[in-house]
Amino acid sequence: MKKLFFLLAVAAALQVEAQEQTAQETARTFMRSGDFDNAILVLNRALQSEPKNLELQKELIMAYYYKRDYVKALEGVKVIMEYDSLDVVSYQIAGNVYKALEEVKLADKMYKKALKQYPKSGALYSEYGELLTATQNKDAIKYWEKGIQEDPSFAGNYYNAALYYSNAGDKVWPLVYGEIFVNMESLTERATAMKGLLLENYKKLFANSEIVKEGDKLKNDFSKAFLQTMDKQSPMANHGITTETLTMIRTRFILEWYKTYGTKFPFRLFDYQQQLIREGMFEAYNQWLFGTVENLPAYENWTKTHSEAYNKFTSFQKGRIFKMPAGQYYQSL
């Protein structure tokens, strides 16, 4: 008899799980087609049986959010905020709703609570920094930097920090963080925009022939080393900053870096560049990085006249995922 009751309980639990999955999948199908009303109907009916089901609640909030019914979405957020434990995605969903309603104080309080629970979540640092930026709070960069330090494999903080440093006139970190971001998130519109930002910042860097003097003013040792090494390549900028000259400058930069600073500052981005140089793919990489935004017709012509090098690099690139490891953080605020 006990065995029978056990089997019945297991069967009931499996049935509930199947119903939950069916409700979520059905709702998502409706949302993908833009039928948010039907998605909301399905989820509300499912929640009648399981009012405390967090996954269904999250889906319902998102359905209201996509429908732009932010007031109803906020009602759902209030419900899940009463739960004893939430995952990172729940906090992200809540943050989106608070931002849509311009509930800055509620969002601020929520992100602080979320980061106490998940102090290594790059996504939460990134989004909290974006909230602070929207309110013109200068502490935003502190959170993006913390996100890079705690969760170096999350791309969003590199993107936000690169934009911040570019606007601030910094000569090092837009280049470093921007290139890391493009390698992590290579196929998006943000990546294309970042490539343009990289080219622009290289032009700004070499517009001043006394790069090393700028480095001498800095307290950060990594930044000093970066600028000192770049300064040695400065004569090549006399021909202008193009994809071709950047390929030469950056090749010599890497060779010089590993003679002088490679041991002191191990860095995955530079390791990757060194690997591409050794395997004869660095020119193709720089064409992909700068050529597409400098002169697209010229880049397309290069891919045709250098088809073997282009195909070798693109094949290699598709087979890898770029990640920054922990422990290679050199920024200091």
From TrEMBL:
<keyword id="KW-0732">Signal</keyword>
<dbReference type="Pfam" id="PF13181">
    <property type="entry name" value="TPR_8"/>
</dbReference>
<dbReference type="InterPro" id="IPR011990">
    <property type="entry name" value="TPR-like_helical_dom_sf"/>
</dbReference>
<dbReference type="InterPro" id="IPR019734">
    <property type="entry name" value="TPR_rpt"/>
</dbReference>
<keyword id="KW-0802">TPR repeat</keyword>
<protein>
    <submittedName>
        <fullName>Tetratricopeptide domain protein</fullName>
    </submittedName>
</protein>
<keyword id="KW-0677">Repeat</keyword>
<feature type="signal peptide">
    <location>
        <begin position="1"/>
        <end position="18"/>
    </location>
</feature>
<feature type="repeat" description="TPR">
    <location>
        <begin position="20"/>
        <end position="53"/>
    </location>
</feature>
<feature type="repeat" description="TPR">
    <location>
        <begin position="88"/>
        <end position="121"/>
    </location>
</feature>
<dbReference type="InterPro" id="IPR051685">
    <property type="entry name" value="Ycf3/AcsC/BcsC/TPR_MFPF"/>
</dbReference>
